[in-house]
Amino acid sequence: MTRPASFKHIKTSPEIIRLAVMLYIRFPLSLRNVEDLLHERGIDVSHETVRYWWNRFGLIFAAEIRRKRVQQLRVFSKWKWHVDEVFVKVNGKRYYLWRAVDHEGEVLEAVVTKRRNKAAVLKFLKKLMKRHGTAVEIVTDCFASYRAALRELGATEKQQMGRWLNNRVENSHLPFRRRERAMHRFRRMRSLQKFASVHSSVYNHFNQERSLASRDTFKLTRTAALSEWRQLCSG
């Protein structure tokens, strides 16, 4: 059987690579933690190999997940988007990670900028609308640049603000914050943007909202998600 192009010239089994990348991105583990977990399964690789796999295949896996989901999501036009930003330290400098989720908690986009102003909001919203279409309502906090950017886009009437209205997107930052601590923060803005994008796609893929479903339903959806992951880049 011929291997797909993404695994060409790679001696290691694609199944092992998918497992290593999933462990590193999905769970708050360090590269050495992943190395130890693989060793317990009889797989002898170094943490630097795991780093290489993550850097090479992480974006490929995330792109395939995103490609399959975006087309499904664009069918539904009556969305409510929740938009928020958090600061992230990179080598002692403050950057801003902008995130948008829909009314079901699906992470739509994650963008890193150097500044927190109208231009940054416009950059983020334009990328969001280009990929996902438009929303009926856009929930934000009281940061003035959101209104200024939406005014320029002609969507001021879609903005909603409230004390607890944006809890959904604020809670969506928590899985990333756990990963940030496990990685001892980031060294470059480019690495931050790359990891945030890949982490969002993988989080969407495995997020089964287990608190809202019965145990039997959760087991079925979890098995389906894991099966789909094992098929990534297999054809």
User: What is the number of helical segments per DSSP (H or I, 4+ residues)?
Assistant: 8
What percent of residues adopt helix (DSSP H or I)?
A: 40-55%
Unreliable stretches covering 5 or more consecutive residues: none
Give the SSE order as H and E letters. Answer: HHHEEEHEHEHHH
**Radius of gyration from the alpha-carbon trace, in angstroms:** 19 Å
The rough form would be described as: globular
- Mean pLDDT rating: 87
- In percent terms, what proportion of residues is strand? 5-15%
Protein model, in words:
It is built from eight helices and five strands, in the order H-H-H-E-E-E-H-E-H-E-H-H-H. The protein has helices at 14-26, 31-40, 47-73, 118-132, 144-152, 167-182, 189-206, 215-230, and strands at 80-90, 93-101, 107-113, 137-140, 159-161. It has a five-stranded mixed β-sheet, with helices on both faces.
Question: How would you summarize the topology of this molecule?
Answer:
Elements lengths: L13 H13 L4 H10 L6 H27 L6 E11 L2 E9 L5 E7 L4 H15 L4 E4 L3 H9 L6 E3 L5 H16 L6 H18 L8 H16 L5
Parallel strand pairs: 1-4, 4-5
Antiparallel strand pairs: 1-2, 2-3
Helix pairs in contact: 1-3, 2-3, 3-7, 4-5
